[in-house]
Amino acid sequence: MDLFTPIVSEEQQHPNFRSICAQRNGYNWDVLNDWARGFKDRDGKFVHEFQKTFDTCFWRLYVFAVLKQYGLTVDFSHPAPDFLVTDKGGFNVEATVALHAKDAVPEYMKSEEPMRY
What pLDDT, on a 0 to 100 scale, did the predictor assign at position 115? Predict the structure, then answer.
């Protein structure tokens, strides 16, 4: 799976994806490519979503990397859940993210103000 060859226009690319590409840091790409190794794109749109919406795909790759790190086997033959782990008695993992609130400042737009509690 080729995560970094652009398949969406630059205007459609998520700011985090553009940032990773602009940095030209091969180590970042190596880590993400390692996370993706063995990941199955069941619906054929993962790379498009990675480049356009980024967050959910990034964390899905991270969860997959954690499962691999623990030596767990994932069955990708079903459309859902995200991860059907067949070892250790079997369990399911559905990866999801909490994005910024509607009309709130997205996480990629850094604020110089300190956080207030």
Answer: 59
d(CA 23, CA 27): 10
Residue spans of the chain under pLDDT 50:
none
Identify the CA nearest to 40 among candidates 71, 78, 87, 14: 78
Q: Which one, of 49, 47, 51, 42, lies nearest residue 16 by Cα?
A: 51
Please measure the distance between the N-terminal and C-terminal CA atoms of the chain and give it in whole angstroms: 42
Which H, E and C letters describe 54-89, residue by residue?
CHHHHHHHHHHHHHHHCCCCEECCCCCCCEEECCCC
Distances (CA, A) of 33 to 22, 37, 48, 89, 106: 17, 6, 15, 29, 25
Query: For residue 26, what pLDDT is reported?
Result: 83
Q: What pTM value is reported for the model?
A: 0.86
**pLDDT at res. 23:** 83
Sheet containing 74-75: give its strands across: 74-75, 83-85, 91-93
The structure tokens 């499962």 sit at 67
